[in-house]
Design brief:
Keywords: Cell membrane, Membrane, Transmembrane, Transmembrane helix. By secondary structure, the protein is an all-alpha fold. Helix content is about 80%, strand content about 0%. The chain is built from twelve helices and no strands. The chain is globular, with a radius of gyration of 20 Å.
Length: about 270
């Protein structure tokens, strides 16, 4: 018990020292700036993928507050009508804009680990762009699992001669794709973003915390907005944007704390090794 209290106290001191709540506000701003370029990329590649806009909505809708989800859906619908000119200024420029949020996370994690950004500007931004592309790829896989999961399960069942119990278990597991994909995305961020060599195992504590915390916070905030919070009455037509910013702010805090947990554990292991 005393050890848990000491760990909690140390984590809180790190949160205050690294100004997690202030940096989270900055991250929320960059997340908002990154959202629509990211939507442009998704809409641009959608015609080449075997699913629809509604498949994308179905995953995001599980976590996003309703009013923010309406804003996102309307934006995607409007962007899709201008599909012919979406990438007129180049896919690289779009990805550059979409990677603003990831680039801000890179700087925040470097601060958590107390390491300088020794990589050049282009290399650091290149890492952010690659992480953005990876997130899009993982998101696409998350969409494919529910859509084609049944066919994949039937294929393995027939080839390997597995029982009906396997199909039942498979159908249950494939709908856990969203939490698993969120865990993979967080793990990738915590592993590759900091300018520090890390192992896959060392980022697990923060990844688990961020996955559970983000899903729980998203559900709780969505429930609160749907049942108690009337932001439209206070902010009028920009109420949906305010809700989206609050959701991004909460998400950024959780992501930052996950990074602080990993940095704290890494420091403890280094101290013990010394």
């Amino acid at each position: 018990m005393e050890k848990a209290v000491a760990v909690g106290k140390e984590l809180w001191e790190r949160v205050q020292r690294d100004d997690v709540f202030g940096i989270a506000a900055q991250l929320a701003y960059f997340f908002l700036l990154s959202l629509f370029p990211l939507l442009i990329v998704l809409i641009a590649v959608l015609p080449y993928l075997p699913f629809t806009q509604e498949d994308i909505f179905s995953i995001v809708r599980d976590f996003a507050p309703e009013e923010s989800m309406n804003l996102i859906e309307n934006s995607i619908s409007e962007l899709s009508r201008r599909n012919g000119t979406l990438l007129s200024f180049g896919i690289i420029a779009t990805l550059w804009s979409a990677s603003n949020g990831i680039n801000a996370i890179v700087r925040a994690f470097n601060r958590a680990y107390d390491v300088p950004e020794s990589r050049s500007f282009l290399i650091a931004r290149g890492v952010a762009i690659l992480l953005t592309i990876s997130m899009i790829f993982v998101f696409v896989v998350a969409l494919l699992l529910p859509v084609f999961g049944k066919q994949i399960g039937l294929f393995f069942s027939n080839v390997l001669g597995l029982s009906d119990e396997f199909l039942t278990l498979w159908n249950m597991l494939r709908w856990l794709a969203s939490p698993m994909i969120i865990f993979i995305i967080f793990s990738g961020l915590y592993w590759f973003a900091p300018n520090k060599k890390l192992t896959k195992v060392s980022v697990l504590p923060g990844s688990i915390f961020a996955t559970v915390g983000w899903i729980a916070a998203s559900y709780a905030f969505s429930y609160y907005v749907s049942n108690f919070g009337n932001y439209s009455a206070t902010y009028g037509s920009i109420g949906a944007i305010i809700i989206l910013m609050i959701w991004f702010y909460m998400s950024a805090i959780i992501i930052m704390i996950g990074g602080e947990i990993n940095a704290m554990m890494s420091k403890r292991r280094t101290g013990q090794a010394a």
